[in-house]
Design brief:
The protein is α+β, with helices and mostly antiparallel strands. The protein has a single domain, classed as Alpha-Beta Complex (Lambda Exonuclease, Chain A), CATH 3.90.320.10. The protein has three helices and five strands. Strands 1-2-3-4-5 form a five-stranded mixed β-sheet, with helices on both faces. It is globular, with a radius of gyration of 14 Å. It starts with a helix and ends with a strand.
Length: about 120
Amino acid sequence: MKDPIFQLCDTVREASYALHRYLRHGHLEKVYENGLVNRLRKAGVEVDQQVPVQVRDEDGVVLGDFKADLLVRGELIVELKATKALVSEHIAQLLGYLRASRIEHGLLINFGSPKLEIRKFALS
């Protein structure tokens, strides 16, 4: 039997592929965000948009905060891009979100190129 987090990642991937096939590339990131949320919710998946996450120092002091594009079922951060290609800064951004939120798994999805790019990351 497949681990539930991997099943969840597969669901997000399938919805992303379907959305990219329909919209193709060339839209703003927010359009893809709204489209993916719509498709996931229609599939019965709990998803929140623009979820605030605080970054804290080791003593608990808040250093700043960010908004994760999507938080799926409270256990998967999805960072969306609409650029020509993913770069190391995008990866660093997602890894920072995972560390700050203490969420183990994340997907980095780029809708901006002719070929959809999806990368899975895990902290451990």
